[in-house]
Design brief:
This protein is mainly α. The protein contains 2 helices and no strands. The longest helix has 28 residues. The chain is elongated.
Length: 57
């Protein structure tokens, strides 16, 4: 996986986790859901990139 893309996707997942945790702590369901969605998007992009790399080799 390209280093830059991997870091970006991991960062997106981490950012989503922070949003989710903050939302839980504050009782803000909207922020919590946005965090979960961001994590899912980051995970999906990581999975897609890994699959793409697998087929390259």
């Amino acid at each position: 996986m390209a280093g830059g893309k991997k870091a970006k996707n991991v960062g997106k997942t981490a950012k989503g986790k922070i949003k989710e945790t903050t939302g839980k702590a504050l009782g803000n369901e909207s922020l919590e859901m946005k965090g979960r969605a961001e994590q899912a998007a980051g995970d999906a992009k990581q999975t897609a990139q890994k699959a793409k790399d697998t087929f390259k080799h």
